[in-house]
Every structure is written in C-alpha cells, then in structure tokens.
Design a protein that fits this description.
The chain is an alpha/beta fold and 937 residues long. Among the domains are: 7-170 and 252-264, 5'-nuclease (Rossmann fold, 3-Layer(aba) Sandwich), CATH 3.40.50.1010; 314-323 and 334-550, Ribonuclease H-like superfamily/Ribonuclease H (Nucleotidyltransferase, domain 5, 2-Layer Sandwich); 560-661, Taq DNA Polymerase, Chain T, domain 4; 719-860, 5' to 3' exonuclease, C-terminal subdomain (DNA polymerase, domain 1). A hairpin with a 2-residue loop joins strand 11 (382-390) and strand 12. Mean pLDDT is 88; it is low at 293-333.
C-alpha cells in the first residue's frame, strides 16, 4: 500500500490502556512516589510508535466517559458482568489524557456514547473527505466498520506483529460474505465481554452457516421453520434476544459530535508540557527518545557489526561484515538482535573449541546454556552449548546428533564445568545441570541462576528470560517460536534448524543471561537476599536436579485396576443419578445439571446463578445440598471418580519415561511467591489425600526394587509451630513444648471445657480456627467452613484471641510492618512485596493484609524444609548412600531407601529436619515406612 497524502489514525484509548495495564500487571512499573505507571507507559509507547513509524498526517484519541450509554438505557445488563475498573486504570486515564494533549492530539469523548461510536462516526466522515483511516484497537468488533479506505489496525502484542485488516481480512476472520454481517455474527453468538447474550447455543460456526444461508438475523428468524431440532427451538425462543443483541453490538456512526479534520492534523508535541509530565512519571528514557527524535532530522543509521557466523574466526580474528541497517533511524526503545551490536561466534572445529576452552578456563565467571531437542531433561539430547563471559559476545558449540560424537565434544568441556573456581551463570540452571548429568558431566563450583535471583527480588512477577530482558535490559530477544514454531503437534525441533540461526539464538541467550546477572547481583544486595540466594536457593538447585533425576517408580498394574474400579463406580453413580432425576442427561454439563436440579427437581426455591445466567452447580453448592439430597451427594462422588480417573489414574502411566521406566516430575523453584516449591508433570502437590479414594492413588508409588522400601518424613503442624514461635504466645508455646494436642488445647480454651472433655466436633472446629486464622479467614468464612452461624463464629474468633493474645499481637504487627515497608519477611529474609497494602480498593487491600500475616509463616515453613533438604542431600552424598530422595510434597519428604540403610535413615532424616532452623518451639517429624507411599505416609 503506497502512503496516501492524508492518513488519519483514530486510537481507542480504553482498549489500549487496559491492554497496557495487563501487559505490565506481572511486572508493574512503580514510580518512586508509589504510582503504578504501567498503563500510561504502555499507552505512550503505542502512541509514539504510530507517530514515529507510520507518520500519520492526522491523529486523534477517543475515550469512553463514565456516563451510561444509550446501550445501558436499552439493556440495563449491558456490561453488567464486568469487574469494577481496577484502581490503577482509574488513576491512569487522566494521566493518559494529559499525555495525549501534550502531544497536541485532540481528545474525543461524548457522554452517552462509547469510544468506538465516536471512532466509527469520525471514520465514516474522514473517509468521505478522502482520508485513509486506521482504527487502532485490539477490539475485533471494529471489523463491522471496515470499508474501502477504512482499516482495523490491531497493534502488536505479546510477540504477535501488527495486523492491518481490510475488507478481505475481516471477511476471512469472521467467515462471512459481507462486512455488514459482522454485526449479525455478534447478534447471533453474543459477546460475553460486554454481556450481550445472543442466541444461546449458537457459536461462530453455526452463526456463519446460518448467515450464508439466510443473510441476516432477521432472515434467520423468518426462516426458522426450516431449521431443525434444538437450533430451531433456540432461534424461535430467543430470536428477539438475538435482534436486541445485534443492535447492542452495532457501532453507532452518527454520533452528534463536530468533525473538523484540521484540529487533528499532527504538528508535533508541546515539548515543555511533555517534559513536565514525563519527569513527573519518571519516563526519562522515553522522554529522551521522543523529544530527541522529534527534534532530529532523519540521518543514516550508524553501521552496525552484524556477525556472519559461518565465517567468523574466534576472538575477532576475522573481519565482521558491515550493514548500514534499516533505511530509517531505529527509534524503538527496545534493542533487538537486528539493531544491537553483537559478536557471536560459531565454534565448529576442534581448533576453535580448543581455543575457546583455553579462554573459558581463565574466566572468573561465565554464562552457559544448553540447546536440546526436548524439554524433558531425562529424554533430551544435546544440540549445542553456548557460552558468554562479556557483554555482547558469545560462542556457540554445536554437537552432533550421534550420541558418541556428542559425548566426545562435551567431554572436551568437562574441565570448564568441573572447575570450582569459575562462577557458572545460567537461566534455569537446574535444566542445564540435568542435561550435562545425562552425559556424565557434573557442574561444580558456585552457580548464579538469573531466574532464581529475580524470583527473590520480585517473587510475584514472571521470571522467564524474554520478560527479564525486556524489563531490565530494554531488549527483545529472538523468540523460540521464530525457530521451531508454536507449541503443538506441528512444532519443529531445534536439531533441524539451520545451525547459523541456532548459533545466533543460543549466543543471544547466553549473552543476555550474562548481562542480567550483573543487574540482579546488585539488586539482591540492595534487597538483602544474597545470603538466602547463596545458602539456600542455589544449593537447592542441585538437590532438586538430583531428586528429579532419581525419579519415582509407578505400579501400572495397580493403576490399571484402580482405573477399572473407578469406571465401574462412575457407571454405578451415573445410574443412581439418572434414577433419582427421572431422566438421562449429561452430568458433566453444568447447564443440563442445573436444569435437572433446579427446574425439574426444584431442590431449592431460589438457586444461585452464574454471570452467564446458568445455574451454579459448583462443589460449594452441591456440598450444601448433599446434606439433604442424595442426588447431590452422588453427583459429587461421580465427579470425584471422574477426576481421579482422568487426572491421576489414567494420566500417571503416560508420564513414565521410556528411558528408565520412572516418572520424573519437574520441581519449580520460582513459581510460588511464598517460597514453597511447586511441581509439574505430574503435579505431586495435588495428589489427593482428603478422601479415601484419593488416598488410594498413593498406593501406586512404590520402591524401585525389592531391596528398597519407601520412607516418608513429614513435619507435624509446622506452620502452627512457626506461628507460636513468631507470636511468642505463652499458651501456644507451652502446648507444643509439652507435646499436647494443639487443636484439643485450642478447643479447651475457646470452648471453656477441661482438656479431657474436648470431643471430636470441638477439636474439628478448633482445627479450622487454628489454620483458618493464619490464612486470614473471616467470621463469615469460618461459619461456612464449620456449619455455624456468623455470630457464633465471631464469638469463637474473639475467644481465640483472648486465649492466645500473642497471636493477635503478631497479626497486627505484621500488617503494620507491611504498611510501613510494603513488604514482609520470612525467618531467612525472603521478602513478599505487598503493593496493594495501601490500596483504596478494599478487596485488594484485604488480600494484601492477609498475605502480610500468612506469607512469613508459609515462607518460613518453605525455608525450613529447603534447608532440611540441603542438609539431608549433603549428608547422603557424603555417606555415599544408595538410598535416594525422590519426592518433596508440601511438608513431607519421601525416600526410596536401600533396606540395609533403613535404620540410619530413620534416625538421621528426622534429626536433620528438626534441626534445619532452630526456633523457640520444637519441631516434630513423623516418620513412616512401607512398600508404597500410602503405607509410608
């Protein structure tokens, strides 16, 4: 498309602000004054990208207003399902308007209409005046406005490029024959985002087919007698609703607002005003970039060294080719491989490898990265190794597909990896350590894992390299999808990618990780988490690598028998449900289930409904009904059987590695903000324990051979013991020190009865109180959990704090500390940042206050078991035991014990766990032994 003389860009402000807000939600930009500027920053980047790259002759930005629109008048439920506007967005809107005005760009808004109505009106009028119009928004509904000279401009987002949609693209996207049918599509299928109902049961495919046959919603309704079955019934019953939905979705193009194209002509920003705003928001780099470029005249880009990896000699002994780069100056704030100087080398001969190893051996620190053909370490083959020890410089060593040849090359680098004087830097070092372990190479000496470093610096955000590079280095790395495509059956394999592309990709990974280390080392010092990093998290990397490598044996015969039993139980439950309901239906369909329980059987008079208008049939609803209605109880049992069968019993055998016949989970060290470990494939933390059927699954976890047996060691009430120590509550500490049952003790004090008179129900309620309060449970929540009135629940909470005043004092102190510092800490200094602690949003603030109380407790429990794991791992290694640590689940460690070592393991494991971190309250560890996990637990 040649550049027209008159181009008008119309920006949908709210859509772009929301998009920017959520893009930065995991890594918020907080100014020194505590203001979240992410939405304003993201919007500014999008705006300047258009001004700088597209150079429109005219531009305007449209906003929604808080006033109700004509759609709300016609349909009061319009957008009623939406959550309240986030406070950070509410604050961002006036900032964005100020920024827009400082760019000398008009702000368009009118009460009673939405931004898309204003944009639709201006697009029509501008097109009639000879403009090429681009409506910039991620909202696909704008497709109904596209016509000749009017385009939908969807901005780049999350790795996807800009998408400019004209008439052909919109027709293909919506699978319709005419543009005016887009609004018919919306009328038929509805729009859940805006709470537009449409015709129930009509999805995109059905809607497209109907429109191809009958043209419009009106045409479909007129010919409803030609339809069949459920579709006929739905169209006849909900036809009027479909017509109303069509009108709600239709963008108004006749908004009564003056159109004067001269006011939208772009002549540059008000530098003084923009400087003032950006200084206030601390957009200093952006200010320099925008005003610098605005004042500059286009000049040739500075030549950049672009490495020809096929010809480059080692350490700069060949001349890099020069490229003048793009025709226009590069103005994007973020660097890329294409616009950043780099010196990446392909090390593909024995001579080059020898020379590289010589240089690596004299480095104090270096970054390494493995490229493989599989994400499962136990099954992965090495494709190559990348190294970096200097910013902008990296080296890639490809390895052959032949295992023996690859082993020979990796052996050459053994002295580098086993040199304990060199600090090895990696991103997700555990994976790389396991890959090298497959080839018999051990990574020795100190390690710096950038993923874990950032996890300690900012635990609530994302820690993958691409995000870290963008946020801390202003750099966008090459995406893996550019090399092998997106995840799925059609995804390629790294071993099949051109070696020179892999060399650049891998070299960049090592280079970027090396640079991130320099940033994060200083930040950890500033945040006082370096000791936690060096003494706990990094040593744990090797522990987890070994646990995963050890694997767990699964009894497939036991699971097959269990699967058959669950199938039979499911069929039996299904038959009972159909008999009680009086008809057959799809039990897995919430809609059908709701109709049976509440329309047909009328189990309750006013059943609760979801936001989509369906009856709520969740576990909480059915659990209450199960007290009086057998059908609800059996449905819950049916769901349990189905979930156990599909999620665990049938899934676990598929996770057995063909390499060694064991299951190797993936422990994730940088996921839970509390510091606790999580696991994946399988998720061992979720193996059921509360129900008898669920517990049976643990029977399938067995020792690896007849001369082994399983040992499970579990901290007893670790979190409550930590509460007692932190709160220094005499009553609670005394109970633990004297070995009394803490829940019975609590019941005795709260209910005012002697300890020996505490019954099972009292103890159950006290247990809910003990654990509930440290998780911030309210009187309402406690009442729900133990089946009492809210008044009685509040009386119990009050009595609890009267009897354990130290706990209340601790809880208040933690909230106050969070308000003062915006973070809380564990016993080892692990921080949990609570950005919403001062929020005006009561829900967000309440969540932060609960975390202020609970995070130090959960986090300290995590600290304790991690220290114990390291101590046990080191002891077992030192003693050269054949027994293996194979699982960590919550507060429990599981070992596959060589039987001759059982007695020493039973003695030392609990001792090491108890002494992991000394507290004023003694830790207790329960140990069990058995020929499967259930018996050992």
């Amino acid at each position: 498309m040649s550049k027209p003389e008159k181009t008008l860009f119309l920006l949908d402000a709210m859509a772009l602000i929301y998009r920017a807000h959520f893009a930065f939600s995991k890594n918020p930009r907080i100014s020194s004054k505590g203001l979240n500027t992410g939405a304003a920053f993201g919007f500014t980047n999008s705006l300047f990208e258009i001004i700088d790259k597209k150079k429109p002759s005219h531009i305007a930005v449209a906003f929604d207003t808080p006033a109700p629109t004509f759609r709300h008048v016609d349909y009061p439920l319009y957008k009623a399902n939406r959550d309240a506007q986030p406070e950070d967005i509410r604050v961002a809107i006036p900032l964005v308007k100020d920024i827009v005005r400082a760019f000398n760009i008009p702000v368009l808004e009118l009460d009673g209409y939405e931004a898309d109505d204003v944009i639709g009106t201006f697009a029509k009028k501008a097109s009639a005046e000879g403009f090429e119009v681009f409506m910039m928004t991620p909202d696909k509904d704008y497709g109904q406005l596209v016509e000749e000279h009017v385009y939908l401009y969807k901005p780049a987002f999350m790795g996807n490029g800009v998408d400019i949609m004209g008439i052909p693209e919109v027709l293909a996207k919506w699978d319709v024959e005419r543009i005016d049918q887009v609004v018919d599509m919306l009328g038929l299928q509805g729009d859940a985002v805006d709470n537009i109902p449409g015709i129930p049961g009509v999805g995109p495919k059905t809607a497209s087919k109907l429109l191809k046959d009958y043209g419009t919603v009106e045409g479909i309704i007129a010919h409803s007698h030609e339809l069949k079955g459920k579709l006929k019934e739905r169209v006849e019953e909900f036809g009027a609703q479909g017509l109303q939905s069509k009108e709600l979705a239709r963008i108004c193009t006749t908004v009564p607002i003056d159109f004067d194209s001269s006011t939208m002509e772009y002549k540059g920003p008000n530098k003084e005003k923009l400087t003032e705003i950006f200084e206030e928001l601390e957009f200093r780099t952006t200010l320099k970039r925008i005003l610098g470029e605005a004042a500059a005249t286009p000049t040739a880009s500075k030549p950049k060294a672009i490495v020809n990896t096929s010809q480059m000699g080692l350490f700069g002994d060949a001349t890099p080719t020069l490229s003048n780069g793009p025709d226009e100056p590069i103005t994007s704030e973020k660097g890329t491989l294409a616009n950043t100087e780099h010196d990446y080398h392909l090390i593909d001969t024995p001579q080059k490898r020898k020379r590289l190893i010589k240089y690596l051996m004299v480095q104090k620190e270096l970054c390494f990265d493995t490229e493989t053909d599989n994400l499962e370490p136990i099954e992965a083959n090495m494709v190559g190794l990348a190294f970096s020890y200097k910013k902008g410089e990296a080296y890639y060593v490809p390895t052959p597909q032949d295992r023996e040849e690859a082993q020979a090359i990796i052996e050459e680098f053994r002295p580098v990896f086993e040199n304990e004087a060199i600090l090895k830097i990696a991103q997700n070092a555990k994976y790389d350590i396991q890959i090298l372990k497959n080839y018999g190479v051990e990574v020795k000496g100190p390690i710096f894992d950038t993923m874990i470093a950032h996890y300690l610096i900012d635990p609530d955000t994302r820690h993958n390299m691409d995000v870290l590079a963008e946020n801390y280095l202003n750099y966008t790395p090459v995406s893996i999808t550019e090399l092998i495509g997106k995840k799925g059956v059609k995804q390629g394999n790294m071993k099949d990618v051109d070696i020179h592309k892999v060399a650049e990709y891998a070299g960049e990974d090592a280079d970027i990780t090396f640079q991130l280390k320099q940033v994060f080392a200083a930040m950890m010092e500033e945040n006082k988490v370096t000791k936690l990093f060096d003494e706990v998290e990094i040593p744990l990397v090797n522990v987890l690598a070994d646990i995963e490598y050890n694997g767990v044996k699964i009894d497939t015969d036991a699971l097959a028998a269990m699967s058959k039993e669950l199938e039979e139980e499911s069929l039996k439950a299904q038959t009972q449900i159909f008999e009680l309901a009086g008809s057959e239906f799809n039990i897995a369909s919430p809609k059908q289930l709701g109709e049976i329980l509440f329309d047909q059987m009328k189990l309750i008079e006013k059943p609760k409904k979801t936001k989509t208008g369906q009856y709520a049939t969740g576990e909480d609803i059915l659990s209450k009904l199960a007290v009086e209605h057998d059908i609800a109880r059996i449905i819950l049992e049916f769901r349990e059987y189905q979930k156990l069968k599909s999620t665990y019993v049938d899934a676990l055998p598929k996770m057995i590695s063909p390499i060694d016949g064991l299951v190797h989970t993936d422990y994730r060290q940088a996921v839970a903000a509390t510091g606790r470990l999580s696991s994946n494939n399988p998720n061992l933390q979720n193996i059921p324990i509360r129900t008898e059927k669920g517990r049976e699954i643990r029977k399938a976890f067995i020792p690896r051979s007849e001369d082994h047996i399983l040992l499970a060691a579990d901290y007893s009430q670790i979190e409550l013991r930590i509460v007692a120590a932190f709160a220094e509550d005499e009553s609670m500490m005394d109970a633990f020190k004297n070995g009394r049952d803490i829940h019975a003790t609590t019941a005795s004090k709260v209910f005012g009865v002697p300890l020996e008179e505490v019954d099972r129900d009292m103890r159950r309620k006290a247990k809910e109180v003990n654990f509930g309060l440290i998780y911030g449970i309210s009187a309402f929540g406690l009442a729900q959990n133990i089946g009492i009135s809210r008044t009685e629940a509040q009386q119990i909470i009050t009595a609890y704090f009267n009897e354990f005043p130290g706990v209340k004092k601790y809880m208040d102190a933690q909230v106050n500390k969070a308000r003062e510092f915006t973070y809380v800490e564990t016993i080892l200094g692990r921080r949990r940042y609570l950005r919403d602690i001062h929020s005006k949003n009561m829900v967000g603030r309440g969540h932060a206050e609960r975390n202020a109380i609970n995070a130090p407790i959960q986090g300290s429990a995590a600290d304790m078991i991690k220290v114990a794991m390291i101590s046990i791992h080191d002891w077992m290694k030192k003693e050269k035991l054949q027994s293996k640590m194979i699982m960590q689940v919550h507060d429990e460690l599981v070992f596959d014990v060589y039987k001759p070592e059982l007695e020493i393991m039973k003695e030392r494991i609990p001792a090491l766990m108890k002494s992991a971190i000394e507290l004023s309250v003694p830790m207790e560890v329960e140990v069990g032994v058995g020929n499967n996990w259930l018996k050992a637990h």
